[in-house]
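Appendix B. Raw example, untouched.
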Amino acid sequence: MSTATDVPLPRSTGPGAAQTTPGPEQAAPAPEQSTGRRTLWDRTGVRLVAGALLPLAVLAAWQLATAAELVPAHRLPGPLTVLQAGAELIERGELGLHIAISVQRVLLGFAIGSVIGLAVAAVVGLSRAGDALLSPTLAALRAVPSLAWVPLLILWLQIGEESKVTLIAIGAFFPVFTTVAAALRHIDPHLVEAGRCFGLRGWSLFRTVQLPAVVPSVVSGLRLALAQAWLFLVAAELIASSMGLGFILNDSQQNGRVDRILLAIVLLALLGSLTNAVLGLAEKKLLRRWT
């Protein structure tokens, strides 16, 4: 009886056979290139030029409409008329003071509201008891319109800087609180548990694990709060103010100075964009530091 030798059998090459070792002509496809590389639209210069196209188009359409007298001049003065109104206020030494006072009010209210918002968000987001006690009341207060606070603040704090800064702080508080509290409630519990396994508790756990996890949400809340602060500034200065860009709006409306109204609107837009750009630079540094 002959013994069978261990000779490897040839693999089937039929259409239904599974091929376990692909040949050179059947090599695995190369992985796709990373989509994180910078494109033309990511360049700073290109973004600046692209962002200026629409404002320039609006400015050109504005000039054409006023030059062709499609709109009466007393309803829509031309861009040069608005610039002349600004030059007039500069010559009188008033425009810079109005801008400085409004910026000061916004920055103070934004800082106060943001700090309080972060503190309350930490209580609500990290404590179930704090969430149950504070969330319903804060949700109700958030629904109160900004102008509804004005009469109460005037009665309590009189017509002064305190009432205006407090109103702006109220406006800045809620975006920060809402965004950060929601982010803290949705932190991955595995990260928290891993931190506790390394002996982290309380402030050390918050600083090392929880805060870095919500830094993007904190920055988003701050940017929303800054925009809200500019909105509440106008509400504060329209009602009870003798200086500021909101005062220019109110005073110009009463005197029929549409050119100054448009000037104040343009300045508010420019200042809002400038402060948002500054916060954007701070955002990049924070994200590099904490993420």
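End of appendix B.
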